[in-house]
Amino acid sequence: MKKVIITGSAGFIGFHTALRFLKEGFEVYGIDNLNDYYDPNLKEDRNKILEQDKNFNFIKADISKVEIKNKYHEINPELFINLAAQAGVRHSITNPEDYIKANIDSFLHIMEFAKDNKNLVRTLYASTSSVYGGNIRQPFQESHGVDHPLQFYAVSKRTNELMAHAYSNLYGTECVGLRFFTVYGPWGRPDMALFKFTKNILEDKEIDVYNNGNHSRDFTYVDDIVEGIYLSSISKKELIDSSFDSKDPSRSFCKSIIFNLGRGKPENLEDFIVEIENNLGKTAKRNLMPLQPGDVPDTSADISGLKDFSGYEPKTSIKIGVKNFIDWYKEYYKVNL
């Protein structure tokens, strides 16, 4: 049975990813520090579900501590999937130091482990569409420049991409970075729009709609995100950075690559809100606000690279995805409409 380490396993995406790898017959080692960035009860409840599977092993640990590398070597996995991070665009503006520890120090320990462990086949890690920063060309392509970040969360994730590239070039480690685009779905984070909108509408409170609602987002359902993660982990296609000239024998190949992971079909924010209203049977009270610092008006993913590499094909519309979230929300919080 193959072993996989999944960091952030009690988080939103990590939880769903762990479920998928358990279903596929992996022995999953989930690592999470269960911090209180948002309600830790939600993390505990996700973890309880995972622990019902005999092939799930939970380790409560802070991966920013250097000694975590000993645990990585003890497990000796074939795959490593790093989904632990300090997330949140707005939080990074007020608390940038959190992102050094959680996103950069932690990733350094993973890269140090990866270069020394010969059993490890591939390391996957979460990046973000936020790295595209001030880019205005749509859809975003991996070849577009990413040198104009608008907040420190994007800086920390771009740093991960550069670290992976350097370690791959130096030591031949296989690294796949996935730039997530606006992930949503059941068991989602309370600080994200879908969760906040649903909660406020049910409580007859206003919802803050930024940029006066003139946003479009490449909303991507969590099951599609997990599919992209899984397919990227098992793809047998060779990872070669095209920036190296394969005809030059003096240059080593860098086996590090980055893909957009989205739906590839951006939706207007207003249409997303309407789906929430339809499923709740209630009209939102909109508080229209200006564009927030660090935010961008629109995101759109070119996913052709990931399709070619792994066969990835997202399937879930916002109509289905929003309904699935609201069904979960009503059941989890015992809401009667």
Write a structural description.
The chain has 337 residues and is of the alpha/beta class. The protein has one domain (3-189, 220-265, 301-315): NAD(P)-binding Rossmann-like Domain (Rossmann fold). Helix content is 40%, strand content 16%. It contains eleven helices and 13 strands. The chain has helices at residues 12-23, 40-50, 68-75, 89-94, 97-116, 152-171, 193-202, 222-234, 269-280, 304-310, 318-332, and strands spanning 3-7, 27-32, 56-60, 79-82, 122-128, 175-180, 183-184, 206-209, 216-217, 220-221, 256-261, 267-268, 285-288. The strands form four sheets. Strands 3-2-1-4-5-6-11 form a seven-stranded parallel β-sheet, sandwiched between helices. A two-stranded parallel ribbon has the order 7-10. The longest helix is centred in the N-terminal third of the chain and has 20 residues, at 97-116. The N and C termini lie far apart (45 Å). 44% of the residues are buried. The model is unreliable at 248-252 (pLDDT under 50). Keywords: NAD. Residues 4-231 form the NAD-dependent epimerase/dehydratase domain.
- Biggest sheet, spatial arrangement of strands: 3-2-1-4-5-6-11
Strand content: 15-25%
Helix content: 25-40%
Mean pLDDT: 93
By CATH, the superfamily comes out as NAD(P)-binding Rossmann-like Domain
CATH top level label: Alpha Beta
Which structural class do you get from the secondary structure elements? alpha/beta
Order of secondary-structure elements: EHEHEHEHHEHEEHEEEHEEHEHH
3D shape:
globular
In total, the number of strands is 13
**CATH topology name:** Rossmann fold
Gross CATH architecture: 3-Layer(aba) Sandwich
* Most strands sheet: 7 strands, parallel
Low-confidence spans: pLDDT under 50, at least 5 residues?
Answer: 248-252
How would you describe the oligomerization state of the chains in this entry?
single chain
